[in-house]
Amino acid sequence: MFLSACGTLFSGGNQDVSFDSNVKDVKVYVDGMEICKTPCVFPLERKSSTVVVVAKKAGYEDKQMVLRSNLNKIAILNLTFWPSWLTDVATGGMWQYSRDGVYIDMERSNLKQAELQKVKQDVAIRRFALFGYSELKIEAASQQENGEYITALSSLSGLDAKDLIQTVNKSHSAVSLAHNLTNL
Fold it and tell me: What span, in angstroms and rounded, lies between the C-alpha atoms of 123 and 25?
């Protein structure tokens, strides 16, 4: 009797799922119904089918994702008493969603071509700075204006090699370098 309806007793009929995004106040819809605005936590009813999540905000592209439903591992304890399975099936306690948190990366819509090009260039510069940080630090420390990495970064960013060497030397981490290069 102690192990009866384990999924229902230990997990309940709902699963708290948190929603967050890179932009605040994104409307979150589950199966077509608005449930909250980011950041938020919402108790989704457990069920055997997948759930379609759509995120919307004016000025941004809509994002769609799917939360898959899986067998709740706690419900396996019901193998000892078959009527427990019926309780868990009826309450939804037999199921759980594949994740407890959803992060939504919203992208601006209708960017002008020049803005889009600038965003792509900034991403390329950040990526180069993050992956080539060690080599950039070595070349900057020895003031190698014609170093392979300094030259490549100069070409990518359009910045003078001397200015890049100063920026690299002032940066204390790969992340700060990436930030400093795209916020000059």
Answer: 25
Under 8 Å between Cβ of 132 and 176: no
pTM, full prediction: 0.47
Please tell me whether residue 42 adopts helix, strand or coil conformation: strand
Label each residue of 60-105 as H, E or C: ECCEEEEECEEECHHHHHHHHCCHHHHHHHHHCCCEEECCCEEEEC
Q: What residues contact residue 138 under an 8 Å CB cut-off, 6+ apart? A: none
For residue 176, give the DSSP letter: H
Residue 6 has pLDDT above 50, yes or no: no
Q: Give pLDDT, residue 9.
A: 42
